[in-house]
């Protein structure tokens, strides 16, 4: 089977029909069953569009989620949906103030919203050549959230006497969720992860002492996150493709962090036991490609060179030039192209239209076909 060198990160702009349904449900105007029916309809229409636009790996657009990460956390036993004093701070904006806080020991109960969501997505791809992908936030992201603010930290101390026990429970809960997804037919699971982008930002850590969000040092977090993520994905079936997407924040077309991969490459790129890295490279904030030399020769890198934050289309030749630059560190057969992130990491979505969203995806496919098809033919 020929390898496809274009990809997506996963989230899509929510249709107006879905936005209205969520508003109506929150106001008590429709039942949960009615909301689910509308979600199903919109997801079915999205998967059909993904197929029509030539995508081979499809998602449900994260249409059932409010956030790319918190909804997954709230689905574990021992975690409550709470409101914090502040939301997340992005460049020029602050998000809603939801958070996840411990209310007991963490575990996977056997029933989880991501598992239910995947089963419906899988049903839409039966009998086709489409691969359904389930994206979930990385275990390290949950660890970071549980220490965000003094109230969250107090809850950790209440239920866990040491960090090792917390890491073990998070890893086990994630391992159990991923195995349940596998048993439901998932063969492609992606871990979305903003923690490495945070660790790469020198400005954040220059002022870390002034924040109550950090319970450990920068280097301690690197070791903790690597240990936790690898523990969660240890001893999984060999035919399950595991990847991770490193994000710098993606909210309403704004960003949270900046910084080259240099400071995290020897942990993330060299040692995290995934099959592929989806890396943001849509502007100068991500630095150059030199850190890619840390990627093992048998792993793939998906270059996020096309931004999902702005509607303007990138120039094809410039993107091709950057792919060539990256191929100095990772062999071209192990490279692919995608947008740098999804289009709606939260239900607010980025500032562009659905037509502009699909134009971005079409650009990714066009460039990928022009770069890799000749390379494959020449090799043959």
UniProtKB/TrEMBL annotation:
Gene3D superfamilies: 3.20.20.210. InterPro entries: Met_Synth_C/arc (IPR002629), UROD/MetE-like_sf (IPR038071). It comes from the Bacteria. This is 5-methyltetrahydropteroyltriglutamate--homocysteine methyltransferase. It comes from Lactobacillus corticis. GO terms for molecular function: 5-methyltetrahydropteroyltriglutamate-homocysteine S-methyltransferase activity; zinc ion binding. GO terms for biological process: methionine biosynthetic process; methylation. Residues 164-347 form the Cobalamin-independent methionine synthase MetE C-terminal/archaeal domain. Keywords: Methyltransferase, Transferase. It holds the Pfam family Meth_synt_2. The gene is metE.
């Amino acid at each position: 089977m020929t390898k496809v060198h274009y990809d997506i990160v996963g989230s899509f702009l929510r249709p107006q029909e879905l936005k209205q349904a969520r508003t109506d449900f929150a106001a008590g105007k429709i039942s949960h069953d009615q909301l689910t029916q509308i979600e199903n309809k919109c997801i079915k229409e999205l998967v059909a569009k993904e197929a029509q636009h030539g995508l081979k790996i499809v998602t449900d657009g994260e249409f059932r989620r409010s956030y790319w990460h918190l909804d997954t956390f709230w689905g574990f036993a021992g975690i409550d949906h709470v409101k914090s004093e502040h939301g997340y701070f992005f460049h020029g904006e602050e998000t809603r103030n939801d958070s996840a806080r411990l209310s007991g020991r963490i575990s996977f109960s056997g029933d989880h919203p991501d598992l239910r969501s995947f089963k419906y997505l899988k049903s839409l791809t039966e009998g086709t050549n489409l691969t359904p992908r389930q994206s979930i936030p990385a275990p390290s992201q949950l660890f970071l959230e549980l220490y965000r603010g003094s109230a969250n930290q107090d809850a950790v101390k209440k239920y866990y006497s040491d960090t090792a026990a917390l890491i073990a429970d998070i890893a086990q809960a994630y391992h159990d969720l991923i195995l349940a997804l596998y048993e439901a037919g998932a063969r492609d699971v992606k871990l979305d992860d903003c923690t490495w982008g945070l660790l790469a930002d020198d400005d954040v850590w220059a002022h870390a002492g002034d924040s109550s969000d950090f319970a450990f040092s920068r280097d301690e977090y690197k070791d903790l996150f690597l240990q936790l993520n690898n523990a969660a994905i240890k001893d999984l079936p060999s035919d399950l493709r595991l990847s991770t997407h490193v994000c710098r924040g993606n909210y309403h077309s704004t960003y949270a962090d900046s910084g080259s991969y240099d400071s995290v490459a020897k942990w993330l790129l060299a040692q995290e036991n995934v099959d592929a890295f989806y890396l943001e490279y849509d502007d100068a904030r991500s630095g150059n490609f030199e850190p890619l030399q840390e990627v093992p020769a048998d792993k793939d890198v998906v270059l996020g060179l096309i931004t999902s934050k702005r509607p303007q289309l990138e120039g094809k030749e410039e993107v091709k030039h950057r792919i060539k630059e990256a191929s100095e560190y990772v062999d071209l057969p192990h490279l692919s192209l995608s947008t740098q992130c999804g289009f709606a990491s939260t239900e607010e979505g980025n500032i562009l239209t659905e037509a502009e969203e699909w134009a971005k995806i079409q650009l990714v496919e066009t460039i990928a076909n022009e770069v890799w098809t000749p390379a494959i033919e020449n090799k043959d």
